[in-house]
Amino acid sequence: MGRWAAWAFVVGAALVHGLPALPHVLLGVIVFIAFVCAGAGLWQAADVRARRPWVGWLAWPALALGLGAAMTMVRADFRLRDALDASVENQAMPLTWRVAGLATVTDRGQRFEADIIDPPPGVPTRVLVMQPSAGRFGQPGRSPHSVPPDRASPSGSPIDRTSAVRPVGSVASSLPGASDPIPMGVVPGNIWTGRLALKRPHGLLNPHGFDYEAHLFQQGIRATATVRGPATRVGDAPYASFDIAIQRVRHRLREAMAPGLEGTRYGGVILALAMGDQAAIRKEDWRTFNLTGITHLVSISGLHVTMMAALGGALAMLGWSRLSWRGVMLAERAPAQVMGACAALCVAWAYCLVAGWGIPAQRTFFMLAVVAVAAIARLRLGGPRVLALAAATVTVLDPWAPVSAGFWLSFGAVAVLMLAGSGRWRRQRVPDVAGRLTVWRHRLGQGLRDAARLQAALTLGLLPLLALMFQQVSLVSPIANAIAIPVVSLVVTPLALAAMFLSVLPGPDGLAHLVSAAAQGVFAAVMWPVQALADLPYASATTAAAPWPWVAIGLLGVAWTLQPAGLPRRWLGIALVLPVLCYRPERPEAGDWRLAVLDVGQGGAAVLETATQTLVFDTGPPFGDNADAGERVVWPYLRARGIRKVDHLLVSHGDADHAGGLASLLAAVPVTAITASYDVARETAWPATLPGLPSATRSGPCEAGQAWQVDGVTFHMLYPRAVTGKPRSPPADAATARRASADRNANSCVLHVQGRHHSALLPGDIGAEQEDVILRSARLQGGVVPAARTNGAASAGDVDEGNADEGKADEGNVDEGNGYEGNGYEGNAANLVAAARHSVDRVAAANLGAGQSPDADALASPLPADVALMAHHGSRHSSHVAWTVAVAARHAVAQAGYLNSYRHPHPDALARWQAAGAAIHRTDRHGAVIFTSRRGVLSVSREREQRRRYWHAE
């Protein structure tokens, strides 16, 4: 009953994290008090529990569930109150902050957590600070290798360990992944003063994607900040708090180890094994670890903590049993086993702190703590009860731990190992007359068989969770783990720890460097066969994101399969797991389509599905030098949708914010054909280069007049008129770069999609001039905008240019904050649209008077669309009045980054679309927007509304 109550407490906390909004804090307090009183009353009513045992079995878990929910609501409410006020958002203000965590270096600069000292009203206490790249911390400036503005990471892009960040230190810039030297300047405990521009936490939000805001909320970070101008160190407080003191120790350890890791291949891995700092692990190594399922080996896992605790406990027992005090052996005063348990617990606690106190380390420490306390108190606790108590303890200390996938994977893995313990399988007995060699040979074989069974059980047991959370399962994991676990755990990790301890001892560093080199050499030898496994064509399998009922059935199948030997038909449990692996989401019917406008920040990417084929329009921006939207957003979305092949990849133009993810997407998924406004076989977004198109991929230019039909859906290319394919050179200066970018924007591919019931328009980054060309072309070709949709037809050349000038829309009359609510665009913008419609009606009447009858062919112009993406992210110099009237969209979508420096989408553009009758959707406010066209209905789903949680900013 106790373990069920402990798990109920965890579930209660997890249920709160699914709420779109928190109830009033008083409700949480009342519920907490009520459940405490009810529990006390039930404890006293022993006679009731004696007569009706089922009351206790039901009541205690229910009480624990309520307590977990009430505690989480109260603590979440207090954390929500420590928020950034919208009135001071994105404004640089003078502040003083204390560095609270290890600093890492990305291509953009240094990132670290900090505590604001004496924060003014509306400013939270804990923030995540980004110090832009500079020669020195107090002298900001752009380094020669810093990324240009159009390649900067969008606000709120997720912090992922696959990003090649590196630690800050006097020599740390030479670690793997370093490019430009940034001297050490950020040390935990240092106090700095300067100007910080604060933003509320905001991240990309896509179906089945990473929730960056949840990650920051779990860490207690309530704002992100960028240092503006010079910053000055004004003091040092290394012991301001226990956490800062620990981070200071970690910083010193990392600094001491850095010289021995300088310029080495696996220096980042050794650093991760020694102290849990994974920042310097290379991106290609993370890919290998993920494909082979050995990621857990390069983090401080339970195996590492347990090994250190066992070593410390054994040494303590040995010393305690041999020492005496005043003629009395210490073991006579207190049992050596008790002192060994205490020492093991202390060693585990210290190692977990040095390792960063992650969830796997917490889980292991609290399990060891429960075992140690039970041993000292001589209590008998089974493994399931120890696991449940550890999970409940972690949740009490950190109610947001159940939000992370690592919590469930960590405890789930231990549960699987307990369920599939080697003692549950039938063992072969050794004949009594067997010799010693035979016995040892039998034990070795039995141990290898048990290890293989445990690894197979672990792979099977985590399949449903991995399919739900990551949609990727390693097929070579059992073999890779069988090779890597013994060597990494028993050889590499002890050597890494020895190198860490030797590096902080006084004296020459040669021995520490030698031990570090030995650890890297052994790890390199292990990686040779592991890398060969990762390079296999079918090293991993992708699965679609199955609904949670399917996952629950799969977990039941796992539990049935892993039951003790002797239970009949255990293999039938595997049949319950197969639906999770074979699930495929429903695709549109013939003539229908599904358009997902993805949230990629300041960039563009969309996925359009028909009954049997998939088209990807643009691939999003790069997120620094080591990640991009192709691998972080587009490919995960395709994977979750069960899409294994892209039939048509259309890149509107070569700017980084639209083509930045091209190379990653081509490496991740087969692409049948590529169409672009430039020669993708020779170049991609500057300054990156494409190593070469896959041999099975066709490529060609996009040109106006191209048309094709797939599954009853017709695709028309409206622009450009011709493609030169002339290769580009890197721009010599900023002015040249701007002109080149404008030329690429003007050459964007414009695609119109016409289904059986609805249509869509994807214009890339064209401006008003290109919109005029498309409108004029439609009129010259005899296409007339249907009167039922736009009250006539017109050429942009016949529209009164004075009224259509974008600058006429008074920015001051537009309420930017309410731009998508439908109330903020009255006045001048509406007058402009009315004037444009008048011109359209006048031109249509003139055409009819000249004998141009609007026959069926004329009414078949492909320009009008039910769904339209705003050209150039909704910039002021696009989406002009005649265009918005002619397109007559019911829905207009702006893909833009949160509080981006370009002010996209511009209020004038939003006003013109809304005045033309379109409902406004913005990825920076609504996340991914998904349109589904089917008979009689065009449904719209906005991800921030579907996945709304209480920590998401309004």
Q: How far is the first residue's CA from the last residue's CA?
A: 41 Å
Helix/strand-derived category reads: alpha+beta
Shape: globular
Give the low-pLDDT segments. Answer: 135-183, 724-732, 783-827, 846-861
Mean pLDDT: 80
Largest sheet: 8 strands, mixed
Percentage of residues in strands: 5-15%
Give the strand order of the largest sheet, numbering strands 1, 2, ... along the chain. Answer: 19-18-17-16-15-14-27-28
If helices are DSSP runs of H or I spanning 4 or more residues, what is the number of helices? 32
Helix content: 40-55%
- Count of beta strands: 28
Radius of gyration: 31 Å
Domain Metallo-beta-lactamase: 600-678
Transmembrane segments: 21-42, 54-74, 297-318, 338-357, 364-381, 401-420, 451-470, 482-504, 511-530
Protein name: Competence protein ComEC
Region (Disordered): 133-176, 722-741, 790-823
